Amino acid sequence: MKILKILFSSDRGGVLAYEVQFIQEFKRRGIQVDAVILGEESQAKVYKSLCDTSYTIPSLDAQLAGSPLNILNSLLKSYTFGAKYSKYLRQQIGAGKQYDAIMYCRPNLIHLAGMLSQTYGCKALWHLPNTVNRDMARKYYKLFCDKYGIISIGNSAYTRDTLGEQCKHIVYMGYDERRVQASNLSFRTELGIEAGAPVYGIAARLHVDKAQDIVVEAFANSDIPAKGGHLLVAGGPVGSEFYAKIHKAAKGLAGKQVHFLGEVSDLPKFYSSIDVAINGRRNVEPFGISVAEALGAGKPVIAYYLGGPSEMIEHGKNGWLVNAPAVEDFKAAFNNSLENRGRWGEMGAYARSCAKTFSVEDNTDRLLEIIEGSRSRQTVLAH
User: Fold this and answer.
1) 210: alpha, beta or left, given left = phi > 0 and alpha = psi -120 to 50?
2) CATH entry, 179-358, from 3.50.30.40, 3.50.30.20, 1.10.10.10, 3.40.50.2000
3) Which residue pairs, CB below 8 angstroms and at least 24 apart, start in 374-382?
4) What CATH architecture applies to the domain 2-174+359-382?
């Protein structure tokens, strides 16, 4: 099987983790993965190292959001970009090349992916990384998904439902179990945290949407510090204005019971250091790879309920769902979790048992089933 991925060299966070993990899983299964990489930013080398053959084209600055005028300009950019670079790539790749599927995430790639799928006689798969919140956007995507024969795939039931009936599939942007294996290394030792102290952790890019400021302030206001508990905050960039705001929210606990780790690449070490994971969010979480990873590591999770977390967390069984992205609500969840400290082991074991359906292995199976189904339909139509 041969797959052509369309990737942005500026990818980061959940989309980057998803792309890397699925490409690696495809390769483990002997699938050829070629890539069209937009731009020459930091992730270009990563993607080139993972894929069999890569083709570089300029980046596309077309955000399908904001004012109506901005959206119209972006739609025009997206179309002209697709028309121009589908022709360019046909020359670079060769018209005789065969692919079983073309895959992309970013919605502004709909024309490039659709035109390439027509060139190579295969289906394009759009794996939604986010929700679709405007009726006009739903109509636009339906028009061109129908035109190009693109298959849309939600990254959660919540995301699928925001696109509507045109989206028939769900494939979770799964976590790689190798990223959450138990480790003998621990931040507890490095930070001098006493044995038996309750340790909470949040791992995410420091961004206002991730609500680390809310989580840190809620922790500082909760009963946990008085009980000798600690909070590990993993993620960057440090030194930003938002980092300063998070640091201030610790209220004197920074460096004592709230520990800022910066960017952490050793996730097994992080998860082996904590008892309970937190997924902070100010708005809807389309899926939540960090939630799935924490469950896979056998950790109960505290998370704002809206979006993907409600599909992964059973309140009181493998974690705690927060009703609103506010300090008081996260504080209540912190206190509730501490009151249930005697059940953390049981909840963690249940968390791990729930996690398999969100693994990259299971969700690669689902993706391949969709590709095989689309190939079968293409064969029938051809005859």
Assistant:
1) alpha
2) 3.40.50.2000
3) 374/101, 374/122, 374/123, 374/125, 374/151, 375/100, 375/122, 375/123, 378/121, 378/122, 378/123
4) 3-Layer(aba) Sandwich (3.40)
What per-residue string of b and e applies to 104-142 under the rule 16 or more CB within 10 Å gives b?
A: bbbbbbbbbbbbbbebbebbbbbbbbbbbeeeebbebbb
Structure tokens of 20? 């890397």
Q: Would you say 155 and 288 are in contact if contact means Cβ atoms under 8 Å apart?
A: no
DSSP state of 359: B
Helix axes 13-28, 289-296, angle to 10 degrees: 60
* Intervals of the chain under pLDDT 70: 375-383
The pTM for the full model equals 0.90
3-state class (DSSP) for residue 325: coil
CA distance 285 to 246: 20
Res 376: pLDDT: 59
* Residue ranges of domains in the chain: 2-174+359-382, 179-358
Per residue in 226-275, pLDDT tens? Answer: 999 999 999 999 989 999 999 999 999 999 999 999 999 899 999 999 99
Locate 217 and state its tokens. Answer: 């302030």
Beta bridge partners of 201: 232, 277
Contact predicate 57/88, CB 8 Å: yes
Say which residues have a Cβ less than 8 Å from residue 88's Cβ, sequence separation at least 6: 57
Q: Specify the pLDDT at position 64.
A: 75
> By the 8 A CB rule, do 261 and 233 touch?
yes
3-class DSSP state of 338? helix
What is the structure's pLDDT at 383?
40
- Alpha-carbon distance 234 to 259, whole Å? 8
Please measure the distance between the N-terminal and C-terminal CA atoms of the chain and give it in whole angstroms: 21
What is the model's pLDDT at position 381? 45
Gap between the Cα atoms of 180 and 106, Å rounded:
27
DSSP letter at 90 equals H
* Domains 2-174+359-382 and 179-358 in one fold: yes
